[in-house]
Design a protein that fits this description.
Order of helices and strands: HHHHHHHEHHEHHEEHEEEHHHHH
Helix content: 40-55%
Number of strands: 7
Number of helices: 17
Number of domains: 4
Strand content: 5-15%
């Protein structure tokens, strides 16, 4: 799910209504007022809001995402099972004509869609049991990310008015719907009627879900028929400070520095790419192509994104990665202590959440450079002790 945060501006609403927070009835008054301003039918809006409630389970799920504290090796081994690989191969065969059409129209590789399909809903088997309308209203009312979720409420209202959204629709806690888990606005903008029945039905129609997912990736900047990541071997002499998603070089320059494909050859010699070391210089290594960035538009977790991207290559026949022998990582609590220390030193780590995200990695690299340590952005106990 795209988690972009933007500056929040108050929307026109009656003085007694809140744009987020406050008494829920007053918040709903604000929704009604904005719906009228946007041209929604008042009667349809009333039907849409009838029985709406705050779902405390949604708020708990939003605040308890501890699985993103796992490191890449642990996370990927938990998510990528033999059963998922076998199911991916079966679904690739079962829906081969749909995937052929997708690759011809949008240039999105079937492995990418299979990976998201598997991770999001286990190929449509586990789509979530949270009431979607209530989940969206709950997260729009919650003042952590109203700019992300409030527009989704009106997108869901539009789908409801079009007859493509039932009030008992269920999905993920964050309001995503269907087999590849798309938010209502994404459905409005990128929904594709893949089975030709005149409706976009992401919960029950696999062609609709897969084609809509491909259209969404294309709209987010997917480069047709280009790679996303390739596993590589990095020399011990590499300047580790040049690694990370913020350091891009043409493939040829990495090759001149001794970077090679672990299997085969590196494609697209002139492409701007980055060396990513999810567990430091002694762990797995990948070369990230421009399409890798698009994965972050679907989900903001570095570990999730890299695991999905790697799984997509496995579904296309790539071998198991070389796990290497990385230094042991830190626990979630230790990462929080590290983030606090980095914040005290003036770094922006994006929050004290125990998750090793891009900002924390950048701060770690900066401190490794300052302390004369290998700047591979992988925090170890030794670094934490030094700080």
């Amino acid at each position: 799910m795209k988690q972009t945060l933007v500056a929040f501006a108050l929307l026109a609403a009656p003085a007694q209504a809140q744009t987020c927070g406050g008494p829920f009835p007053d918040f709903l008054d604000g929704i009604r007022a904005e719906a009228r301003a946007l041209g929604h039918d008042p009667a349809a809006t009333e039907r849409f809001l009838q029985g709406a409630r705050i779902d405390d389970a949604v708020l708990r799920a939003d605040r308890e995402q501890g699985h993103f504290q796992r490191d890449f090796l642990d996370f990927s081994r938990r998510l990528i099972s033999r059963n998922r690989l076998d199911n991916g191969a079966w679904h690739a065969r079962q829906y081969a004509p749909t995937f052929d059409d997708i690759e011809a129209r949008w240039g999105v590789d079937r492995g990418v869609l299979l990976a998201f399909w598997a991770f999001e809903t286990d190929f449509g088997q586990v789509q979530g049991d949270f009431n979607t309308r209530d989940a969206l209203l709950t997260l729009a009312h919650d003042c952590r990310r109203p700019d992300l979720f409030r527009p989704q409420v009106f997108a869901a209202l539009t789908l409801y008015e079009q007859g493509d959204f039932d009030l008992d629709t269920t999905g993920a806690w964050a309001g995503e719907i269907g087999q590849v888990q798309m938010l209502p606005r994404d459905i409005l903008e990128n929904g594709i009627d893949g089975d030709g029945d005149g409706h976009v039905t992401l919960k029950t129609s696999t062609p609709d879900a897969l084609m809509s997912g491909a259209a969404m990736l294309s709209s987010l900047g997917w480069r047709a028929n280009e790679p996303w990541i390739v596993e590589i071997v990095v020399p011990a002499t590499l300047d580790w400070a040049q690694t990370g998603l913020d350091q891009r070089k043409p493939v040829t320059e990495w090759q001149a520095l001794g970077v090679t494909a672990r299997h085969g050859t590196l494609p697209m010699p002139q492409a701007q790419t980055a060396v990513i070391l999810p567990m430091g210089r002694d762990g797995p290594a990948f070369l990230a192509y421009p399409n890798f960035d698009v994965f972050f538009e679907w989900n903001q977790s570095f570990t999730y994104v890299l695991t999905a991207a790697y799984f997509a290559t496995r579904l296309q026949g790539a071998p198991v990665y070389d796990a290497g022998n990385p230094d042991p990582g830190l626990s979630g609590e230790d990462i929080q202590r590290l983030q606090q220390r980095l914040t005290d030193l003036g770094h922006d780590v994006g929050g004290i959440d125990g998750i090793l995200g891009a900002k924390t990695r950048a701060a770690v690299r900066a401190e490794q450079l300052r302390l004369g340590l290998p700047a591979d952005a992988w925090p170890t106990r030794a670094l934490l002790d030094r700080l």
